[in-house]
Amino acid sequence: MEHKYNVLDLFCGAGGLSEGFREAGYNIVAGVDFDIAALKTHEHNFPESITILEDLSKEEEAIKNIAKKVDGERIDVIIGGPPCQGFSLTGSRDLSDSRNRLYVSVVEAVEHFKPKAFLIENVPGIATLYKGKVKEQVINSFKDLGYIVSVTEKPLLAADYGVPQMRKRMFFVGYLKELNYKKFVFPKPLLSSAEYVTTSEAISDLPSLVEDVGKDTMEYVTLPQSDYQINMRRNSNMIFNHVGTNHTEHVKWVISQVPEGGNHKDLPPGVGDSRKFNEAWTRYHSNKPSKTIDTGHRNHFHYRWNRVPTVRENARLQSFPDVFRFIGTKTQQYRQVGNAVPPLLSKIIAEKMYKHLSKEYAAENLQYVKQISLNI
């Protein structure tokens, strides 16, 4: 018997986690965020869900408002990726940073709705920040609410799970102890480094935009050239968000001198001096997964063409299917893609969580069948 578990997505953004859980068979009841453009994207792609504009830093008030809007709907699973600037290795690393406490709103939501399970995603830095104090604080907060909590031993690498990107993320998963769940075990890597999906396998079928900058809606001009592209093109007959950038001749000249897989260190002396930080002038390698997709669009370049990747190319590298459309200005779209959890990674974890949940559902169903038999 198929059973749809209801999901509440906090800090939903465009919907990377939501998409993964939907593909795994869950029902997305609502997405909550304070970013209006991202919420419009979520609303467009999840028309059956409730879209809620809410400032989750106002924990108690926000949860009450969310509860009213979901109107008594049963919430089985709460998921969320609280903004990670405070936790990030490149951020302030300040324990008192208010952004480091945004996870508290997830705690408040779990306490209010008492879901069977929850998932939190964050950057690798959360594991070691202040010698692990932040990680322990997160774990203990949910243990106090009666949850058995599992944490990834080390950050999960998205490329290990079929995402064409070297993105690392930490995950916390908890199950309500009173339902007699066992401790959750995260899925093992599915691919070896030799089997990783490459940048070329991800985006080589998309128009080059050499002669023009493209447009927001366009037709496919080639057949898919890899299994990954077949998967990304499912249920889609159009390409969205594939708009190029009009670079100056100077910028294109600089990019042209960066070898495949190279960066600013490979440029001749005096070239590209305006940007010399770690990720500056980075060209993707066609035979490797991409670097971590960020929220901007000025530092990474196509492995072949002398331009930055389009929103759609970044979305492919994040494992968003082509049917998933991003709303807003180009800058807002890039930010939405960069902030998202790769849906394919989310889906694989969600499927494992579903199996874990289904044991409890099967037990409930068996008890119901026994009761009916006794009544007969």
UniProtKB/TrEMBL annotation:
The keyword S-adenosyl-L-methionine applies. The active site is at residue 84. One of its GO terms (biological process) is methylation. It is an enzyme of class 2 (transferase). It holds the Pfam family DNA_methylase. GO terms for molecular function: methyltransferase activity. Keywords: Methyltransferase, Restriction system, S-adenosyl-L-methionine, Transferase. It catalyses: a 2'-deoxycytidine in DNA + S-adenosyl-L-methionine = a 5-methyl-2'-deoxycytidine in DNA + S-adenosyl-L-homocysteine + H(+). Its EC number is 2.1.1.37. InterPro entries: C5-Methyltransferase, C5_DNA_meth_AS, C5_MeTfrase, C5_meth_CS, SAM-dependent_MTases_sf. Belongs to the class I-like SAM-binding methyltransferase superfamily. C5-methyltransferase family. This is Cytosine-specific methyltransferase.
